[in-house]
Design brief:
The structure is a single chain. The protein is of the alpha+beta class. The chain has helices at 18-48, 57-61, 65-81, 110-126, 136-140, 145-161, 168-181, 190-194, 199-202, 209-215, 222-232, 281-288, 290-296, 318-330, and strands at 245-249, 252-255, 258-265, 269-274, 277-280. Strands 1-2-3-4-5 form a five-stranded antiparallel beta sheet. Strand 4 (269-274) and strand 5 (277-280) form a beta hairpin. Helix 1 (18-48) runs parallel beside helix 6.
Length: 332
């Protein structure tokens, strides 16, 4: 069952070799980007009609030409669908102009930077905020692939307002937004199912929402429950006080002390909704489960001597603290 899940992230090295630790940290950072890259590559493939994969994602985009093509394609779709939207829907006017770009721009060149700058100018005009934009160098020199992905996700959010099919992660966000607005979550236990047979006819508003949610339930069904259980139990925890991962309702879990929305992306990656973004469930547990945080502090591959009991902050050695702290500092 683990074959379709995100690749398992190896446990981290200790502080004996700082270079090895930095390499491991970089590889784990790259692994956490994989679901986002796959999702955006699929979206770009559908819109542009070109074969783009997660592996070729940055190579395909780094001269800026395909991004300019994306901007022109979305610009046409925005214009076609703008008349169907309510007047209050979108504050930004849609630019109607050709985006200058050079198809033959070599990777890393001035022309690649120029193409990218033209794309970013267009993004500003359609409403992508400055905090979501990246620097030309981030794309052209592959410096910050995460920033490039976040910008494209924000563009996907804007595209969804114009009835253009967005990336899968944005579809999951909209699904969660609908779930938060609708009253079905409290009546999900078994008791209300027996009591209110007369209530569905009386309230016509709840009835339209379940079909929408159920149509997207590929992301929250039995497959998700099994995947969450598999990740939570791997590796098995022998602590007396186990870190809580408990299903509350479909797609909602109590993880530690927080209530989280968890979704399956393309039947492959288990994703957690965190703040305004997404994180893989494996990565989330690695940062919040005390037992897994101690595994990061292994020295020379040997488990910590206190791993047989429930972790306590007093038990952490200075070296263990440094490793965990280094992990948090690495996050932007």
């Amino acid at each position: 069952m683990c074959s379709f899940l995100s690749p398992k992230q190896p446990s981290g090295p200790g502080l004996t070799d700082m270079q090895q630790y930095q390499q491991w940290l970089a590889s784990r950072h790259e692994a956490s980007l994989l679901p986002m890259k796959e999702d955006l590559a699929l979206w770009l493939t559908n819109i542009l009609g070109l074969e783009i994969t997660a592996e070729s994602f940055m190579d395909c985009l780094d001269n800026g030409f395909l991004l300019c093509q994306l901007a022109e394609t979305l610009q046409k779709k925005f214009g076609q669908n703008d008349g169907e939207l309510p007047a209050c829907g979108n504050s930004k006017s849609i630019p109607c102009r050709r985006i200058p770009c050079r198809q033959s721009a070599p990777s890393g060149s001035f022309f690649a930077r120029d193409n990218t700058a033209n794309f970013l100018t267009w993004c500003r005009k359609v409403g992508v905020g400055e905090t979501c934009l990246f620097e030309s160098e981030d794309l052209v020199l592959h410096k910050q692939p995460r920033e490039v992905c976040l910008c494209l996700l924000e563009l996907g959010r804007i595209a969804s307002r114009y009835n253009v099919e967005p990336p899968g992660l944005i579809q999951l966000e909209k699904e969660i937004e609908q779930e938060e607005k609708s009253p079905p979550p409290p009546p999900s236990p078994v008791s209300p199912a027996q009591a209110p047979p007369p209530s569905p006819p009386t309230s016509p508003s709840p009835s339209p929402t379940p079909p929408k949610v159920s149509s997207c339930k590929k992301s929250t069904g039995k497959l998700l429950d099994e995947a969450v259980r598999h990740i939570a139990d791997d590796p098995p925890c022998r602590c007396l006080n186990k870190f809580c991962v408990e299903r509350q309702s479909q797609g909602r879990y109590r993880v530690g002390e927080k209530m989280l929305f968890i979704r399956m992306l393309h039947n492959r990656h288990v994703m957690v909704r965190v703040g305004g973004g997404w994180e893989t469930f494996e990565s989330y547990l690695l940062k919040h489960d005390p037992c897994r945080m101690l595994q990061v502090s292994r020295v020379e591959g040997k488990p910590s001597p206190i791993s047989s009991k429930s972790p306590n902050i007093k038990d952490l050695s200075p070296d263990s603290y440094l490793v965990v702290a280094a992990h948090y500092r690495s996050k932007k």
